[in-house]
Amino acid sequence: MKDLGRPRRLVAGSRVAVVAPSGPVPEERLQAGLDILRGWDLDPVVAPHVLDRHGRFGYLAGTDADRAADFRSAWCDPSVDAVFCARGGYGAQRMADLLDWEALRAAGPKVFLGFSDITALHEAFATRLGLVTLHGPMTAGVDFVKNARAQEHLRATLFAPESVRTVTPAGGRALVPGRAAGVLLGGCLSLLAAELGTPHARPGAAGGLLCLEDVGEEPYRLDRHLTQLLRAGWFDGVAGILLGSWERCGPYERVRDLVLDRLGGLGVPIAEEFGFGHGEGALTIPFGVRAELDAAAGTLTLDEPALR
Questions:
Q1: Cβ atoms of 114 and 90 closer than 8 Å
Q2: Which residues, in sequence order, are CB contacts of 92 under 8 Å at separation 6+?
Q3: Cα separation of 25 and 52, whole Å?
Q4: Please, what's the b/e burial string for 155-179 (b: 16 or more CB within 10 A of its CB; e: otherwise)?
Q5: 278 is annotated as an active-site residue
Q6: Would the pTM count as exceeding 0.90?
Q7: Checking DSSP bridges between strand 299-302 and strand 166-167, what pairing results, if any?
Q8: Which residue out of 14, 116, 190, 245 is catalytically annotated?
Q9: Mean pLDDT (the chain, rounded)
Q10: Which of 42, 45, 147, 209 is most open to solvent, judged by the fewest CB atoms within 10 Å of its CB?
Q11: How far apart, in whole angstroms, are the C-alpha atoms of residue 245 and residue 214?
């Protein structure tokens, strides 16, 4: 698996477009997130349909066509340096096929940020555009608005990425010890399973350092997602695995046992509690960058900064 193209870092005055590819966005949290971005001397602009809600399906932020149009317009605007997702939820898969990927490619590399349901777009950006993307806190997310650690790690990644080339989460440790190198990829486990066989999903994790996390999934559902990916051969050749947060997925001891049961036989290093995902103070992980994992030391070292 090869590493991907790195967008340019942000600087004071960079224009950031905020879009809503998935679920409806709480206006109060959006405004709080925009205030933080302005405090970083960024120039955030909100896409026209960010505060929409679908007339029939209230779990969507407006229609698929409107969400896709917002995304395309933001990415293809030459004055925009980065596109941040307002929140996850559900819906990115519904609009991914409506995007004009050739137009996005022609617009050139930009910073793209999101996580959770946005996993579907991380996959598409890797396979269709060959770009590094940032798996990290979203503008209207509770964690971003309220947690200083999440804010500061994202800010450092955006403005001074060389300062966060080594990721050392407070609780990171080995579930299966060892060292491994590869290209970072992954995201929300349930989305990776749901993306299997779709036009924008990669065929597998071979050669990669796979980041996995999820939220609100019972252990039997996590088991089903892992088993589906195993049966499909998706884990074949993976170099190493990092586990993030498992909020509302049952007792963590059961999740740990499940991961060992399903993935321990792969014979690769597995690091747990690595601080990314839906948990408090989530760290920003650049997908598409080559890195080295030392599971025993609980460190992830990037070969190069996330952004140029």
A1: no
A2: 21, 22, 117, 118, 119, 120, 121
A3: 8
A4: bebbbebeebbebebeebebbbebe
A5: yes
A6: yes
A7: antiparallel
A8: 116
A9: 97
A10: 45
A11: 7
Tokens 């747990």: give the residue: 272
Lookup result for tokens 């790690």 = 153
Show the tokens assigned to 186. Answer: 């992954």
> In this structure, is the dihedral angle defined by the CA atoms of residues 186, 161, 154 and 273, taken in order, positive or negative?
positive
Residue 214 backbone phi and psi in degrees, to 5: -165, 175
Reply yes or no on whether the pLDDT at 3 is more than 70: no
Q: Report the distance separating Cα 112 and Cα 85, nearest Å.
A: 8
User: Which residues partner with 302 through β-bridges?
Assistant: 291
- Report helix angle 252-263 to 219-231, nearest 10: 20
Q: Which of 213, 217, 272, 273 is catalytic?
A: 213
- The per-residue pLDDT for range 33-83, each reduced to its tens digit, is 999 999 999 999 999 999 999 999 999 999 999 999 999 999 999 999 999
Residue 6, classed as helix, strand or coil, is coil
Give me the torsion for CA of 189, 191, 194, 198, rounded to 10°: -120
More confident of the two residues 146 and 3? 146
Catalytic status, residue 116 = yes
Please name the residue that has the structure tokens 């209207």: 140
CB 208 within 8 Å of CB 184 = yes
Which residue stretches of the chain are H helix?
27-39, 64-76, 92-96, 101-106, 119-124, 142-146, 148-159, 189-195, 219-231, 252-263
Question: What φ, ψ does residue 69 adopt, rounded to 5°?
Answer: -65, -40
Give me the DSSP letters along 74-109. Answer: HHH-TT--EEEES--SS-HHHHHTTS-HHHHHHT--
Q: What are phi and psi of 83, to 5 degrees?
A: -125, 115
The set of residues, in sequence order, having a beta carbon less than 8 Å from that of 73 and lying 6+ positions away, is 47
